[in-house]
Design a protein that fits this description.
CATH topology: Gamma-B Crystallin, domain 1
CATH class: Mainly Beta
Oligomer: single chain
Largest sheet: 5 strands, mixed
Bound molecules: calcium ion
Distance between the termini: 32 Å
Strand content: 35-45%
Length: 139
């Protein structure tokens, strides 16, 4: 089976972080991430393999300067008391925007920039598992 993600990682010599771009992913397995949203997940592979963990997710459509104040939804869609910050393990970018991922609040310490249509099933492979604390949209 063809992987849904086709990402190219390019080092950026002059700035911190790196750039991730991809051709738009095939139109499969998008039912839990509507077009036009960036979908964030606590678990690997967009929560497809929870291994006993909660199905925690959140969709955003604009920059978030402080994910400490932003909380996961659970499997039934209710807001939980689990903060999103330092907890994102996979994501889908279903917007036409680039998203910039930062380690600190208020867009401090750039980790990576992620192009439109990129799905990342394991942020750990990019050294970003449970690190993201703010996200900037650049449209
Ligand atoms: Ca996580
Ligand atoms: Ca962080």
């Amino acid at each position: 089976m063809r992987k849904a993600i086709s990402a190219i990682v390019v080092s950026v010599a002059t700035t911190a972080g790196f750039t991730i771009t991809a051709v738009p992913a095939a139109a499969t397995a998008n039912s839990q991430c509507p077009d036009g949203k960036v979908c964030l997940y606590d678990g690997l592979s967009w929560n497809s393999g929870l291994a006993g963990n909660l199905d925690l997710w959140s969709d955003i459509t604009a920059s978030q300067a402080d994910l400490r104040k932003y909380y996961w939804h659970n499997a039934s869609g209710a807001i939980t008391d689990h903060s999103v910050q330092d907890d994102i393990t996979s994501l889908k970018n279903r917007t036409d925007c680039w998203i910039y991922l930062f380690n600190d609040i208020d867009f401090g310490e750039l980790l990576a920039s992620v192009g439109p249509g990129v799905y990342l099933g394991n942020l750990g492979t990019h050294g970003m598992n449970n690190n993201i604390t703010s996200i900037m949209f650049v449209c």
